[in-house]
Amino acid sequence: MKKNLTLLFTLGLASSVAFAGQTGTEFQDLYDLVHDWATGYLGRAIALIFLLVGLGVGIVRGSVMGAVGCLAAAMCLLIAPSVVEGILTAVI
């Protein structure tokens, strides 16, 4: 009984791994559009706006913490698409 459960569990894991990388192409256009926005001039403009707003908040509050948070958000916006692309295309 225990052998059968182990075999069934192993086969179940193997089958999910086999189909994990196969997706439909119906969302490819959406992915390309959002990826191009994030890595193009729109993403750069939003990152710059984050930085400017952070600097403004930092000046008003008299603290640099507003700029640090917005700088981190800007960096995430610029770096995240390449990280996601690397994760999704990684081959184990």
From TrEMBL:
Q: Which NCBIfam families match?
A: TraA_gammapb
The transmembrane segments are 44-60, 67-91
Signal peptide from the UniProt entry: 1-20
Q: Which InterPro entries match?
A: TraA_dom
Q: Which UniProt keywords apply?
A: Membrane, Signal, Transmembrane, Transmembrane helix
Name of this protein: Uncharacterized protein
